[in-house]
């Protein structure tokens, strides 16, 4: 399931890669109300009904056991409004959530070298929330909060 979903997601990003060298996308996190909020936004903006990937559908990593309450929460979803993407997720249990940290900017550089350079600069005086590493959907993914409190997700998408 996750591979099919990731394939469709990365293909939609890669389709626009020819026009844009790098995309900046708002990424909004919720504290358990992602599904309800995104369905509301899709209706409000006239977007197609989104597909939802839950943390439970993403598979478990033995090094990071998944709490039962996390399995139904939304790991990722997105809507497209007038050709522009908005991305969303629930906050994973145990991760901090407070007003101000629930919106991040998802950045999709073309390659890992660029991703590492940008991540390194953003990390100076800031804090790596998740160091750059390979994931199921990305050859290089990490999350960092810069010295000004802005959250960034750096994501080099796999080409399928």
Automatic annotation (TrEMBL):
Family matches, as InterPro entries: Glyas_Bleomycin-R_OHBP_Dase, PhnB-like
Domain PhnB-like, residue spans: 23-154
Superkingdom, taxonomy of origin: Bacteria
Name of the protein described by the UniProt record: VOC family protein
């Amino acid at each position: 399931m996750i591979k099919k979903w990731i394939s469709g997601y990365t293909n939609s990003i890669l389709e626009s890669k020819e026009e844009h060298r790098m995309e900046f996308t708002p990424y909004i996190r919720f504290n358990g109300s992602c599904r309800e909020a995104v369905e509301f936004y899709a209706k409000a903006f006239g977007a197609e009904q989104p597909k939802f990937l839950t943390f439970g559908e993403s598979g478990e990593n033995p090094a990071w056991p998944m709490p039962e309450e996390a399995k139904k929460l939304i790991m990722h979803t997105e809507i497209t409004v007038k050709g522009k993407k908005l991305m969303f997720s629930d906050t994973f249990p145990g991760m901090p959530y407070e007003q101000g940290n629930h919106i991040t900017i998802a950045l999709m550089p073309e390659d890992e070298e660029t991703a590492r350079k940008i991540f390194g600069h953003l990390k100076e005086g800031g804090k790596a929330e998740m160091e750059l590493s390979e994931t199921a959907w990305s050859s290089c993914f990490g999350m960092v909060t810069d010295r000004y409190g802005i959250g960034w997700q750096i994501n080099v998408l796999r080409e399928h």
